[in-house]
Amino acid sequence: MSLPQQTTVLIVGAGPCGMAAALSLNHQGIHDIVIVDALFAGENSSRAMVIQAATLEALNNVDCLDGLLSVGNKVETLGLHDGSSYLLSTDFSLLSPYTKFPFALGIPQTYTEAGMLEKLDQLGIKKKEMFEVRFESGDIITAKYVIGADGAHSVVRDEAGIVFKDPNGDEKHDHGNLSQLALGDVAFTSPPQLATPNEGVSLTLSNGNFTLFARFPTNASPDKSRPTYRIVCSVPVADGTAPHAPSAEYLQSLLDRVGPPTLSSNLAVNPHPTRIDHVYWSSRYRTRSAVADRYFAPTPNGTGAVLLIGDAAHIHSPIGGQGMSLGIRDAISLGPVLKAHIVESSANNQLFEDWAASRRQRAVSVVALTKETMGIITAPQRVWSPIVAFGFTILRFLGRFTFVKRMVAYRLSGLAEI
């Protein structure tokens, strides 16, 4: 596929953030856009599994939501458990006074990308696919604006000389058992009999470990003949490095050791034992927090810009499902700012400076949220057990109140960070 020699906006990275940026720019009347990516369409895995309410609002503003809503599950409740004991439940429906979308949308990233790609095709915006973003074919593109949406190992960010580090100076990234996570999209020998079957997403804490369990939307299941589930498990430090693509046996061993009783294959623990018998996709994740020192760098002549969004600008623990949602909001918020810069036809970079500072502050807040959450989960590894037990008792008591459920849902939804 041939590349043009010149474009107004070059977007490097065609994941959800890169495509969201293109949709936002098109919505602002900017059509001279080229998107490039190192992966061919369909090669991305399911990875992120949730879109928060604030991001649904942003996607609705660029007319790219209806298709996603028709596929995903509207998750209203998120349950938190300490082993088999209930702690609290977050009710996203309590957000109805603040948003048109009082739920989190459970949808695999592959379907999020497919919905965006379909919308881009309708608009005539094409993704250019190649093996290397560096254009080893010899092609050169001249662009006034370059948007780096090329992930945590961003070439755009590195070429711009932008530092990428933990905002708290914590470069050890030692989070105990949460330092590594194993993820899988799986089917069980029999559907798990959940203690609270109406929960859209279930989180279980267990002696400094963590397990997430969520059912795939029926329309997005890789196997329409039986239910598919997303599981995320912390990897005990004693296990060493997790496999690159964990097997069914490895994932089941984690569930048996650190997961909720309802996902155990041990009859002594679970009166209705079940076992993973098929893995459709699996991966591991090394927990790290980092934020770019700046999201904007002017071009040498001062009339253009390099801008960062998504994982190129910030990464953090996936606990809480904030990463992709925050990145999409970065992308959609950039459209009006870039349009204003083009209309002014000047070197007034204050527009970009203000946008970059605002988005960076939101990323720092999300990093703080994920670290707070990890701190609660790993407390049993660091704090005297009677104190932890007392803290969980207080949490269980507070979780009965509607205002607490609303407060937690509001923070998770991203509405506080718009």
UniProtKB/TrEMBL annotation:
PANTHER family for this protein: BINDING MONOOXYGENASE, PUTATIVE (JCVI)-RELATED, TRK SYSTEM POTASSIUM UPTAKE PROTEIN
Domain FAD-binding: 7-368
Identification of the protein by name: FAD-binding-3 domain-containing protein
Cofactor dependence: FAD
Example of a GO MF term: FAD binding
Keyword NAD part of the UniProt annotation: no
Keyword Oxidoreductase: yes
Annotated Pfam families: FAD_binding_3
Keywords, comma-separated and alphabetical: FAD, Flavoprotein, Oxidoreductase
